[in-house]
Amino acid sequence: MQQNVGAADKRVRIALGAVLGIASLGTLGGAVPLPELLAPVLGVAALLMLGTAATGTCGLYALLGVDTCPAPAGESR
Predict the structure, then answer these.
(1) What own/partner pairs with CB < 8 Å and gap ≥ 24 does 36-43 have?
(2) How far apart are CA 4 and CA 49, in angstroms?
(3) Which residue blocks in 30-58 are alpha helix, DSSP H?
(4) Where do the Inner membrane protein YgaP-like transmembrane domain residues begin and end (predicted)?
(5) Residue 76 C-beta-side C-alpha neighbours within 13 Å
(6) Is the separation of the CB atoms in 5 and 53 below 8 Å?
(7) What is the Cα Rg of the chain in Å?
(8) What's the pTM value of the predicted model, to 2 decimals?
(9) How many CA atoms within 13 Å lie on the side-chain side of 25?
């Protein structure tokens, strides 16, 4: 799969993944007043955000035709 996640998008995904992961762990530990059922949902969302940032590819972006990755020098997209 071709990379379709740019640098700024990666930074946002890493930050959002970290926040979601902390919220998930905080919910499990009782520090965040959210229903415990929400903890695994937040955890999966955090893993998806961090995974797409690490690989540079997003399946949803591919389906929608979105590409935030800049074109290499000398090429047009």
Answers:
(1) none
(2) 14
(3) 38-55
(4) 1-71
(5) 0
(6) yes
(7) 15
(8) 0.86
(9) 7
Long-range CB pairs of 26-35 (<8 Å, 24+ gap) are none
Count of helix runs (H) and strand runs (E) in the chain: 3, 0
Residues 6 or more apart in contact with residue 5 via CB below 8 angstroms: 13, 52, 53, 55, 56, 57, 58, 61, 68, 69
- Whether the Cβ atoms of residue 69 and residue 3 lie closer than 8 Å to each other: yes
Q: To which residue do tokens 């990379």 refer?
A: 3
Lookup: tokens for 70: 């800049």
Residue 74 has pLDDT above 70, yes or no: no
pLDDT digits (tens, 9 = 90+) for 29-57: 999 999 999 999 999 999 999 999 999 99
